Structure formats: structure tokens, C-alpha cells
Amino acid sequence: MVLRKQEILAYCAAGVAFHMIASAFNFYYVKVFINHYHIEETWFQIAQTFHMIWTSISNPLFAYIQDGSKLKISRTRRESILYCGPLFAFSFIVPWFPWGDSSWLVGLHLIITFFLWDTMFTFIGLAVSSLFTEISRDTEDRIKLTRYAQMASILGGPSVMLLEFSSDSLHNFKAFQITSVCVAVCACSLFYYSGLNAHTEYDVKKLEKYELSKNSRVNVNKETYTNQFVIILVTTFVSRYSYYYVIRSAFVYIVFAGFVMLHIGQDHPWCLMVFLLADNCASGATFSLFNMPLADIADDNKSKYNRKQPISSTVFGISALLSKPALSLSPMVTVSILNHYGYSELKNNTVEASHELKHAMFLLICLYPIAIGLVQLIAWSFFDIKQKTVQINVL
Fold this sequence. Notes:
Layout (H helix, E strand, L loop, with lengths): L4 H32 L4 H28 L8 H17 L9 H33 L3 H18 L1 H10 L5 H25 L3 H18 L7 H16 L1 H22 L4 H21 L1 H14 L7 H12 L1 H16 L14 H26 L2 E5 L3 E4 L1
Antiparallel strand pairs: 1-2
Helix pairs in contact: 1-4, 1-5, 1-6, 1-7, 2-4, 2-13, 2-14, 3-4, 3-7, 4-12, 4-13, 5-9, 6-7, 9-10, 9-11, 10-11, 10-15, 12-13
Pfam families: MFS_2
InterPro entries: MFS_trans_sf, TMEM180
Keywords: Membrane, Transmembrane, Transmembrane helix
């Protein structure tokens, strides 16, 4: 299937909508529930635990539904986005409207928020990721898609900036609520456009098969700017050196930069700011490239087992199953460590952060990327690329 502008634009629209609400949700939900709703740490940990359990269930479940089910909402990737995109946008605004002041009600609010958000995040995320795999099997087309998607994501990046500016960093919570609804409406419109136009060759084949089957029955019955700019530049190196070496180099840099910052110390704020910006760019750009190896794994599986179409949702679902628990574990561990050093007392605005708390924050900033980068570097070494950007074998 020749990659057309319509498919590129539709894929980019879904990516912009997804990035628009996902970045805002991840940036604000901890701040809102801890600093604005004053959720108790016990309820916060309980909600995060339920989140991890549901994540372990939802990823394989929705992967199976999208790859093997004949439900109308999952018959094609396009229809998954068309019908569930508005629900994803709705799940984004659920946490920003409080249910009450009692501790158990705030805790229940966070649990329901996680359930709705992760359900739609997983379903739409798998559909959008699978769309990347199935729009084109050509490596150069996929590099082009990655480049255009990151250029388009620049439009979705300002959602956090817009919410910060309109709400004065959550001091005007009413304005934050109104702006979040506007962001959700924009995302919903983009998902709708993508759902109407994001066709793939498998999409067309499925629809033709469905229509034939349907007609025969009728006779009887009837998924910050810097990250995007970096990845746009990085795609040039991907074409030349393959994504394997680019991703490995990024992991090496993340670990090295963490050790350098740890050696410099916390008394140099400008160095810390540059480190945070560079680390965010490297990790964000690397994450954006992971669609390519996962797409190659799906293609390799299709060829190896002679499937009619790649099991893209299953591949991306397994990947998410292994990586998404970090979204719950990271804030759980971070909040627990910081509260041990008196972070919870800062909510009253009556005390200043102690030296021990500041030092703990600095160590977390440096040690997190070092530890995670080492794990990623070791895991990535088990991939064996036999041909540049084309074939991949998983050991």
C-alpha cells in the first residue's frame, strides 16, 4: 500500500490528540490529588496498586480484543479510534472535577480515574501504535511517519503550557477545569478525523471481508517541544545507522549524564536544569523510536507464522504490560521517599524544604536515570539486528 498524505495526516492527528491529553494527565494527576485534593498517602498507594493490577489485565485483554475479536469497535484500527477516541477524551476530564472532601471519596475518585483512564489509554494506545505498523511495511515510510508524527506532536505539546498559563499553576482551579474541557474537545475532534481517514491495507481487506460476510447474512438475517525537535533530527541518523545503534547510544548517554550530574552536585542549578532538559529529550526521543522495533517484531512474527496480518496489538500490548507498571511504581516510590524526608509537611505552606529533602530530591533526579538506563541498556543488548533497520530477532 502506497503511503498517502491522507494516511499520514490521519495518523498524525491521532498522535497529536493522544499526546495532548496524555502529557497533561501525567503532568497533573499527582499534583491535583496530592496538593489540591489532599489525598492521604495510604489511599494514594492503594489506588496505584489497583492501577498496576488493572494494567496487567487490560493490556493482554485489549490486545486480544483488537487482534482477534469481531466486535464493531475493534474490527479495524480506524474504527477503534473512531468509536473509543471520544471516551478517551472523556476519561481525561474525570479527575479534574472533585467528588467530595472525605478521604475515602477522594481515594475512590482516584481509583475510578485510573480505571477509566488506563482502559481508554490502553485501548487507544494499542490502536494508534498498531496503525503505525500497518499503514506501511517499508522502513523508510516508517521513518517518515515517525518524523511527521513528531512534527505534529509539537502542536499537542502546549497543552500543559496552556493549562499552566490559564490556571496560574493550579491557583485558579476553575480556569484549569474549563481549559481541560477545551483540550478534551480538541482531542476528541482529532480522534474523530483520524477514525474516519486512517485506512491501512489490512483495514480495507477486513472491511471487504466483513461486507461480503454481512451481505450473505442479510439474505437470511442482517491507541514540551524539545522531544519532538530532537526526534526529527534523530530520524536522519536512523536512516543511516539503524534505530538499534541510535537507541543504544541514547541509553549510554542517559547513564553517563546521570553519573556526571551526580559528580557535579546539587549546588549548580543551571547544570541541573540543562541535565533535566537533555535527559528528558534523550528519553523522549528514544521512546518515540520504539514503535519501529516493535513494528519489525510484528512483521517478523507475521512472516514466521504466515499470518494474514500482523498481531500488532498483541506485540504492543506485551510491551506495555512490561513497561506500564512503572507509571504506578515511580510515583509510589517517589512520594514514599519524599514524604519520609518531610515533603508532606510542605502542603501547608508553613515550612520550608529541609536540606535533607532537597538532597533526597537531587539523588532521585540523578539515580533514577542511571538505574533505569542501565536496565534498558542490558535489556536492549538482547536484540540482534541482522540487517540495518529491516530484520530483527528477539533472543
